[in-house]
Design a protein that fits this description.
- The complex is a heterodimer of chains A (168) and B (265).
- Chain A has 168 residues and is mostly helical.
- Helices cover 42% and strands 0% of the residues of chain A.
- Chain A contains six helices and no strands.
- Chain A has helices at residues 2-15, 20-41, 67-75, 105-108, 111-120, 154-164.
- In chain A, helix 1 packs antiparallel against helix 2, helix 3 crosses helix 6 (154-164) and helix 5 (111-120) packs across helix 6 (154-164).
- In chain A, 26% of the residues are buried.
- Chain B is mainly alpha-helical and 265 residues long.
- Chain B has a single domain, classed as Orthogonal Bundle (Cytochrome Bc1 Complex, Chain D, domain 2), CATH 1.10.760.10.
- Chain B contains 13 helices and seven strands.
- Chain B has helices at residues 2-10, 12-22, 44-50, 58-69, 80-84, 87-90, 94-97, 111-123, 133-144, 160-171, 181-185, 219-229, 240-252; strands at 100-102, 107-109, 192-193, 196-197, 208-210, 215-217, 262-264.
- In chain B, the strands form three sheets. Chain B has a three-stranded mixed beta sheet. In chain B, strands 1-2 form a two-stranded antiparallel ribbon.
- Classes of the chains: A mainly alpha (168), B mainly alpha (265).
- Chain A binds chain B through residues 83-85, 93-98, 122, 129, 131-132, 139-144, 146, 151, and chain B through 172-179, 183-184, 187-188, 191-195, 227-228, 231-233.
């Protein structure tokens, strides 16, 4: 991402010596390209958040999470896909067991603690094999169609958390 | 270089000891001391297909490979058999010791690449695309000649740095899921990833008939799948990166019997 930003900055500097129309066009392209990209991918640039102790106290969105949508996020292969690695209290033939069962999560953790574990569990344990669902920094060799995006949007994280909090 | 070559001619054994020392090698670390073949994790019905050569669909590839072995192709008017005669004798043990260091090319080559080296350099025939049906047919036929022999690749001397590259690839977290090969195949074998029972990711059954693909696949095709599963960007099949990784994987499976052509779901 940072490299991309530098390229755009260079483009704008050079534009000063070009014919005005071309310069304007170049400027427009430079300014709009990242926006167009973000729009095409859905808004997946991470919003800033604050880690306090072992959790993230404030929600990532102003709209509260929705339990039903969150359950769908947990099961969808292209979204949370939690069931691939965790047993869940739902009826489904094949459930993974790389991580611990999700049943009883809400009794083990507070909402802020769960939020940090979904957003970026590597902040708790750098050797964790639990994917970071809301991080783009510090990843290596990401497939092109996923590069620069978080796995879930802020709203999907909040929806998911609403569902996880029902797992007592 | 020249001095090295003269020395090599004089005392190859002592030179390899010198090279080993000069490159400051630590002994490789084997995270799985008692490796288990993928067959240990396969379902009984899959194994029933693998263990019966008449049921195992990979034997169609074996037949095609045997025909290709004897077929003259290319401008030199030669077949594999023109140089190597009877594959059941000359190719015995080859799958078990490959990938291997190629002194003239000064890199490690896979069995697939060696077949293509013979085709382009000796036969005047075009290289076959990696993982294509005709190439998989020849490598499956060749691999069959080593069935039951222990995997035994040589990572010493000049081969070592390619091994180290492969080891590094294996242990590097990658992709959006930020996982290493070892995440699944060392830390979690025996556990389920959805419907898949995770094995130790051993390579001794390749080329393998994959039921899902309904064809024989080469090892590097499987590796592409594993990298894509963690939402990583895989290198090309036949690339140096995957070749070195394949070399490392072979060493990980050292001592396991060659089981190609295995059958997997």
């Amino acid at each position: 991402m940072r490299i991309r930003g530098r390229e755009h900055a260079a483009g704008v500097t050079h534009a000063a010596s070009w014919p005005p129309a071309a310069a304007l066009l170049a400027l427009a392209v430079a300014l709009l390209a990242p926006l167009a990209g973000a729009w095409a991918r859905g808004d997946t640039q991470p919003v800033p958040f604050r880690v306090v102790d072992d959790g993230i106290p404030e929600p990532l969105t102003s709209q509260p999470g929705d339990v039903e949508r969150g359950r769908a996020v947990a099961l969808d292969r292209s979204l949370g896909n939690c069931i691939t690695c965790h047993e869940m209290p739902v009826r489904a033939d094949f459930q993974g067991n790389l991580g611990p069962p999700l049943e009883g999560l809400a009794s083990r953790y507070t909402l802020p603690e769960l939020r940090l574990r979904v957003v970026d569990s590597k902040r708790i344990n750098p050797e964790s094999n639990m994917p970071s669902f809301y991080r783009i920094e510090g990843l290596y060799n990401v497939r092109r169609d996923w590069a620069g995006r978080t796995m879930l949007t802020a709203q999907q994280v909040e929806d998911l958390l609403a569902y996880l909090m029902t797992l007592r | 270089m020249k001095i090295g070559m003269v020395l090599a001619g004089l005392a190859a054994a002592s030179l390899s000891a010198v090279v080993a020392f000069a490159e400051g090698e630590r002994p490789p670390n084997r995270p799985i001391p008692d490796p288990q073949s993928g067959r240990h994790f396969a379902t009984p019905d899959t194994l029933a297909i693998q263990d019966d050569d008449f049921l195992n669909p990979a034997f169609l590839w074996v037949e095609e490979g045997e025909q290709a072995w004897n077929r003259v192709e290319g401008t030199a008017g030669q077949s594999c058999a023109s140089c190597h005669n009877d594959a059941t004798e000359s190719m015995r043990g080859v799958r078990a010791r490959m990938p291997a260091y190629h002194p003239r090319l000064q890199r490690v080559v896979t069995l697939e690449q060696q077949v293509n080296i013979c085709r382009t350099e000796r036969m005047g025939a075009p290289a076959l695309p990696i993982d294509s049906r005709p190439l998989n047919a020849i490598t499956t036929y060749i691999a069959l000649q080593s069935r039951g022999m222990p995997v035994n690749v040589d990572i010493s001397g000049p081969a070592r740095r390619f091994f180290d590259e492969g080891e590094r690839f294996y242990n590097t977290r990658r992709g959006q899921l930020d996982m290493r090969c070892a995440t699944c195949h060392e830390e979690n074998y025996g556990r389920y990833l959805r419907a898949d029972l995770l094995s130790q990711g051993m390579s001794n059954g390749f080329p393998t008939y994959r039921l899902k693909e309904q064809r024989v696949i080469s090892l590097q095709f499987r590796l592409m799948g594993c990298v894509q599963d963690v939402r990583g960007q895989p290198p090309a099949m036949g690339s140096e990166e995957f070749t070195n990784l394949e070399f490392y994987l072979a060493w990980r499976a050292q001592g396991l019997p060659v089981e190609s052509p295995a059958v997997r779901r």
